[in-house]
C-alpha cells in the first residue's frame, strides 16, 4: 500500500509542476507531450524487474503476485496428440541423440515426433510439452490441439 501512496503523491506533485511550468512558459502541445513522456519515463524508471538478481524468496513472492505462467499442455493432451514411433535399427535412419536428455537412441526405443518432424525420447518430450508447447530445436508449435 505504501508503494501505491508513494506513486500517487509523486504523480500529483509531477502534475502540479507540469501545470505550473506550462502556465508560466507557454508550452506548445508538442512540448507538453514530450515533457509528459519524459515525466512518465522518469516515474517508471525503477519499475522494471531484473529476475536474474532476485533471491529465491523474492521470485516466489513475485510468482504469488502475478501468478504462475504455464505455456505447456496437459498430460492428457500430450498423450492423445503426440505421434509415436519405435527407433528403427536400420542404418538408413540415423538420428544421433535426444537433444533434451543428450542420450543416444537405442534400437526399439519409443520416440515422440512433433508436428515439425523433430523426434525425441517419448518420455523426454512428454515432460517438455507439459512445460512448453514448442519444439526445443526449431521453436515451432510442437502439438496443435
TrEMBL record:
Ranges for domain RING-type: 98-139
Catalysed reaction, written as an equation: S-ubiquitinyl-[E2 ubiquitin-conjugating enzyme]-L-cysteine + [acceptor protein]-L-lysine = [E2 ubiquitin-conjugating enzyme]-L-cysteine + N(6)-ubiquitinyl-[acceptor protein]-L-lysine
Pfam families, per database record: zf-RING_2
Keywords noted in UniProt: Metal-binding, Transferase, Ubl conjugation pathway, Zinc, Zinc-finger
SMART domains: RING
Signal peptide: none
Enzyme class, UniProt record, top EC level: transferase
GO molecular function: ubiquitin protein ligase activity; zinc ion binding
EC numbers for this chain: 2.3.2.27
Record InterPro entries: MBR1/2-like (IPR045191), Znf_RING (IPR001841), Znf_RING/FYVE/PHD (IPR013083)
Metal-binding in keyword set: yes
Name of the featured protein: RING-type E3 ubiquitin transferase
Organism name: Spirodela intermedia
Amino acid at each position: 500500500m505504501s508503494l501505491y501512496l508513494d506513486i500517487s503523491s509523486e504523480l500529483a506533485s509531477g502534475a502540479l509542476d507540469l501545470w505550473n511550468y506550462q502556465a508560466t512558459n507557454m508550452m506548445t502541445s508538442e512540448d507538453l507531450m514530450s515533457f509528459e513522456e519524459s515525466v512518465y519515463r522518469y516515474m517508471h524508471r525503477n519499475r522494471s524487474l531484473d529476475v536474474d538478481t532476485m533471491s529465491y524468496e523474492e521470485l516466489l513472492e513475485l510468482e504469488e503476485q502475478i501468478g504462475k505462467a504455464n505455456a505447456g499442455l496437459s498430460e492428457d493432451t500430450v498423450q492423445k496428440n503426440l505421434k509415436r514411433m519405435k527407433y528403427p535399427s536400420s542404418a538408413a535412419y540415423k538420428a544421433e541423440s535426444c537433444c533434451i536428455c543428450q542420450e543416444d537412441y537405442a534400437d526399439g526405443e519409443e520416440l515422440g515426433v512433433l508436428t515439425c518432424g523433430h523426434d525425441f525420447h517419448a518420455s523426454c518430450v512428454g515432460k517438455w510439452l507439459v512445460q512448453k508447447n514448442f519444439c526445443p530445436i526449431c521453436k515451432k508449435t510442437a502439438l496443435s490441439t
